[in-house]
Amino acid sequence: MNTDNPKKLPPNLRIITRSVRDRVYEALLKLILSGHLRPGHRLDMDELAKQLGVSRTPLNEALQRLAQTGMVEVKPRSGTFISQIDAATTVENFRFRQVLEVGATPMVIEALGPSSLKHLHALNNQMAELAPTISTADQAVAFLEMDQAFHAAIMDLPGNTVLSANYHRAGVILQVMRMQRFHSGNAYEQVVGEHTNILNALTSR
Predict the structure, then answer these.
(1) Which of 2, 11, 157, 178 has the smallest CB count inside 10 Å?
(2) Would you list the DSSP string of the chain?
């Protein structure tokens, strides 16, 4: 009997795809960030599934994921609601994210390479181009998604899935509050400047 381990498959044969659940999650998050689904709104599950063109299963799975981030609240016998996020919750998430960033710094520096820096610079350059032109909710959402991608790319460098998952959860609520706070190009350009400082610090490590 042959007990040899199978040979490792070539990397180009690996199948990478996003599930329907992931796409539904991203669609719902955009609807929340853009204000289409407002805090306190009760979700009509059947109508929402119909409009998104999916069955209830991936919708329920996406909502469970949003509930884990605190974006939606499931009330027994009442329904599923978009969460009312208060200032205290925002501060708690911001401080938790800071703790993760500080704790992960040695691992990030160890894992950082030229290709990672190039990717981060490219993201920040895209944000710098978009920042002075933002005038609609959709543009603001696109900017915040790039901001989240920038920070996630840094925190994903150590390859620690627990770290990445918790960092993402904390960042989602902050996206909502930033969407409510940002009203001018200067605020967006300030974020780009903060990213530039981060990149300078990483480059001179």
Answers:
(1) 2
(2) ---PPPPPPPGGG------HHHHHHHHHHHHHHTTSS-TTPBP-HHHHHHHHT--HHHHHHHHHHHHHHTSEEEETTTEEEE----HHHHHHHHHHHHHHHHHHHHHHHHH--HHHHHHHHHHHHHHHHHGGG--SHHHHHHHHHHHHHHHHHHHTTT--HHHHHHHHHHHHHHHHHHHHH--SHHHHHHHHHHHHHHHHHHHT-
Cβ contact 31:37 at 8 Å: yes
3-state secondary structure of 101: helix
